[in-house]
């Protein structure tokens, strides 16, 4: 991995400059250190704290990974990535966190300012972190109401339409509509019934499924980038486009 001074404000605040200096268009340049440096480049200095964003917690444990302290720490990590204008223009500037049994095979769920996290299906901290990253990307994608948010929605719908061109929408036996492509995980091609009914260009799960990879550098590098069956070239190209939201 090329060395450069990541604490220099010029690099620390410029995601795409860091991406280019690290040579991350090349699959062979990815390792855990490069992902950590990329994560560092996303960090903002707006000073907004998790308790300014989260209005209420329900069902948290006193200690352990479902404690208020643990969940707040993950949310703070994400808030530090998000541009201030995106936070202040979100339709739901305050969110509620609810911990409990959501339903069969549902790890997490976000809807209209409420983040639900399953405490019976999530069994380790890595999965918890991945779930919070995934669900709060729905919060950013769906509810960022300024120009940044509109540009991001268009970027995601363009990615989806280009990557799935020529593939039909079909009902998958595991539940839900999908469109295929060389996704690292087929869930990225999810099409929700209300999108299909309204003729809305889908794609929200493209954003969530790729952004959640940033929660775990080890998994991103060793289980995705180094596995040709996960289509690493396509994955990093889409991830790069998604990270532009945080510039």
Sequence stretches where pLDDT stays below 50 over 5 or more residues: none
Helix content: 40-55%
Number of helices: 12
Radius of gyration from the alpha-carbon trace, in angstroms: 18 Å
First and last CA, distance: 22 Å
- From the spread of the alpha carbons, the general shape counts as globular
Widest sheet: strand order? 1-2-4-3
Strand residues, percent:
5-15%
Kindly name the structural category.
Answer: alpha/beta
Largest sheet entry: 4 strands, mixed
Q: How many beta-strand elements?
A: 7
> What integer is the average pLDDT?
93
The helix/strand order is HHHHEHHEEEHHEEEHHHH
Could you characterize what this model shows?
The model has no long low-confidence stretch (mean pLDDT 93). The chain has helices at 9-12, 15-22, 32-42, 50-53, 68-79, 84-88, 125-143, 147-163, 193-198, 204-211, 217-225, 232-243, and strands at 54-58, 95-100, 108-111, 114-118, 170-171, 177-178, 190-191. It has a 4-stranded mixed sheet with strand order 1-2-4-3. The protein is of the alpha/beta class and 247 residues long. The radius of gyration is 18 Å and the shape is globular.
């Amino acid at each position: 991995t090329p060395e450069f001074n990541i604490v220099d404000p010029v690099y620390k605040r410029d995601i795409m400059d860091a991406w280019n200096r690290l040579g991350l268009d090349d699959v062979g340049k990815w390792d855990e250190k490069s992902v950590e440096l990329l994560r560092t480049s996303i960090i903002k200095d707006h000073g907004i704290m998790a308790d300014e964003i989260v209005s209420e917690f329900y069902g948290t444990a006193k200690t352990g990974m479902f404690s208020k302290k643990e969940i707040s720490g993950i949310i703070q990590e994400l808030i530090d990535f998000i541009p201030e204008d995106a936070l202040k223009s979100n339709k739901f500037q305050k969110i509620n966190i609810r911990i409990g049994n959501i339903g069969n095979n549902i790890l997490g769920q976000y809807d209209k300012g409420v983040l639900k996290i399953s405490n019976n299906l999530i069994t380790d901290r890595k999965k918890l972190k991945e779930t919070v990253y995934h669900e709060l990307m729905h919060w950013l994608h769906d509810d960022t109401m300024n120009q940044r948010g509109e540009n991001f929605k268009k970027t995601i719908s363009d990615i989806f339409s280009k990557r799935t061109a020529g593939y039909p929408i079909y009902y998958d036996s595991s539940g839900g509509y999908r469109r295929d492509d060389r996704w690292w995980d087929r869930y990225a091609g999810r099409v929700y019934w209300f999108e299909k009914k309204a003729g809305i260009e889908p794609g929200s799960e493209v954003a969530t499924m790729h952004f959640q990879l940033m929660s775990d550098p080890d998994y991103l590098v060793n289980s995705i980038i180094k596995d040709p069956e996960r289509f690493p070239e396509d994955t990093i190209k889409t991830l790069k486009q998604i990270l532009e939201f945080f510039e």
